[in-house]
Amino acid sequence: MTYQETLDKIHSFQKFGSRLGLSRMSRLMELLDNPQETMKVIHVAGTNGKGSVSRFLYSVLQENGYKAGLYTSPYLERFTERMECDGLEISQEDLIHYTERVLEQVEVMLSEGMDSPTEFELITAIAFLYFSEQNIDFLVLEVGLGGRGDSTNVVSRPAVSVITSISFDHMEYLGDTLEKIAIEKAGIIKTGVPVVYNVDDEAAAAAIERIADERGSEKHDVHAVSCQIRKKTLDGSTFDAEIEGTEYPGLFISMLGSHQIGNAICALAALEVLKQGNLVNLDREKLYSGFRKAKQTGRFEILRREPWMIIDGAHNEAGAESLRT
Which of 142, 150, 200, 244 stands 20 to 30 A from 47 (CA)? Predict the structure, then answer.
């Protein structure tokens, strides 16, 4: 297939819509020899902020010499933005190659009488297979929709689970209360795997804590992190943070808005968990550099200052409120 034919084939699976549940994805992974189990995964869910948190994590890991993969959705300009490895988007040639390999196993699924995977399931399978063969140290894996029934949730034991926020979105799939939505997001919590969460609503946070306790997962509430904002400008924000006795004074991020400080602290808490688990060694100067360099396209992105032209991907009420403030 050509690159355009590959994209057309992937998008042809749109007709199967969004169908939460792991039976199709689990079988497809089995046919591909479970590539998702060969990597150390940082699994990131949440209504808003998961893309920014994922970008912070990816940037800091790279700065510290780790070969990292990043899986996000959706894309803004190029389909290949969804899969990034060691600072580079997946090549068109690799996308063609891994799509063809996954489609071969989709045909096996269909011959067994199973339902077809959805478009997102197909893309996630392509990503898992691609990343598994890049010899990466970590995969930062962003959930597509919800958590419990999302196709990314076939990872049986991530290094850490992260829940960035809970607010109203996709209620037809996830429920009509923040507690119900939290339960769906908390579906990414695995037995014995630590969870970092940054959730304001008390009922939603309590639901996450209850599920974490049931699964014997160590809880890390981002609200327990001490933070003092030093300076906010249109070039970025500087703040001090203290996490479980470790001080990080004068951290600077170029992503704009108070909510991005919260996202940075959430990422910092996840990195601290990885460090405490002896999964990473983080040089302080390189950690600071990783946070400083992290950028998220389409999040309060200033295209021009005279006159002002700003774009932002806020797509729900909570995101719009964060943009306004």
Answer: 244
